[in-house]
Amino acid sequence: MNKINKSIELFKEAKLHMPGGVNSPVRAFKNIDGDPIFFKKAKGAYVFDADNNKYIDYIGSWGPMIMGHSHPEIIKAISKQLELGTSYGAPTSIESSTAILIKECMPSIKKIRMVNSGTEATMSAVRLARGFTKRNKIIKFDGCYHGHVDSLLIKAGSGVTTFGLPDSPGIPKELAKQTLSCEFNNKEDFLKVFNKIKNDLAAVIVEPIAGNMGFIPADKSFLQLLRKKTSENKSLLIFDEVMSGFRVSLGGAQEIYKIKPDLTTLGKVIGGGLPVGAFGGRKEIMDFLAPNGPVYQAGTLSGNPLAMAAGSKLIKLLIKNNPYKALEAKASYLLDGMQQLFLEHNIPLSINQRGGMFGFFFSENLPKNLNDVIKTNDKQFKKFLNKCIANGIYFAPSKFEAGFISTKHTKVEINHTISIIKQILKKGL
Predict the structure, then answer these.
(1) Between the CA of residue 277 and those of 42, 117, 237, what are the distances in Å?
(2) 141 Ramachandran zone, left/alpha/beta (phi>0; psi -120 to 50)
(3) What is the mean pLDDT of residues 330-334?
(4) Which pLDDT score is estimated for 348?
(5) Candidate CATH numbers 3.40.640.10, 3.30.1360.40, 3.90.1010.10, 3.90.930.1; the one for domain 72-321
(6) Quick check: 347 and 392 in contact, CB under 8 A?
(7) Which residue, 136, 216, 134, is CA-closest to 183?
(8) Which residues are catalytic?
(9) Once rounded to an integer, what is the mean pLDDT over residues 348-367?
């Protein structure tokens, strides 16, 4: 069992200076009734805390560490750019070269704009959709988290679900009325709302593979319906691939489903571990942005050369190595091993995955939407997570978050994980 005395002390200090002692709510470990761990370094498949404990990391900075932590070629790319300067507030050639790489992998993107976070990307994409269509209303889906954007923090997933917060605290009622949330993977619910507001519907935004209500891929027929109805209605379809982009395949979820959205939002992987976001899509829509068009969007650090250097190097590595089948096999090996152990102890566990993204739920049936996830066994999840973390297995501290495997996870790490879980279950939850 790991001792985290330094982390506990650091957390006490942090709470004096930052709300809740953290800069992102899930990090506080409140929903698993635990103490947050403060980390100081990471390498390959491992992270190391302030007490020098070593953990097999299945979070990977929430996705971007697909090639493992501190990859030498990415570190080299960042270091090379660092010597040239950290930010200019002016155009650089690396912005264009990164844009070209992304466009080559995602053919639906004809033009792209770099921003500083996934939240910025979704916020800007929604504003652009409203400006382009000259309509006001947005449809999203319960449990899909699109960042902390006023217009989209309605029945959101991730931390909002974790802490059971109201649908839209701090958001003006009049603004909230412009966003309608439907049940994920529910065609009938979508059609009911769509038919009521279609004349003023600017866009439908969806995570094609949701990673913030646990890991729940959309049904293909559900996404096909969204594509059909938005096209007929001259509304825009926005795929939020901040998490799934370059994570489940080179072309993201849209490549897997073979569905082309009008706009796509990206983040995480395309920054190689540094803060980044982007949104892109059809040329005529993107050209509605300033300075070409009337929809304003700007950012002092957008296209930051350090993030572009890290992200472009990572994308090049992914193109060269195409690790997705191998990542899928590793995730399957882990999840199948876990499920077998739980079966032996008569504890229901459902599993799901795409590429190196995965999820597991304490339930007999695989959840299809947020309500299904809420009904899973929270008590068992908390006990299991705390015991895993205490034994050096670092899964996401929330049942509303996905897990991630990197190229640096080998059978050594996965077998050790399964061995620890075997010991945990033997002692009982």
Answers:
(1) 23, 4, 18
(2) beta
(3) 98
(4) 96
(5) 3.40.640.10
(6) no
(7) 216
(8) 145, 240, 268
(9) 96
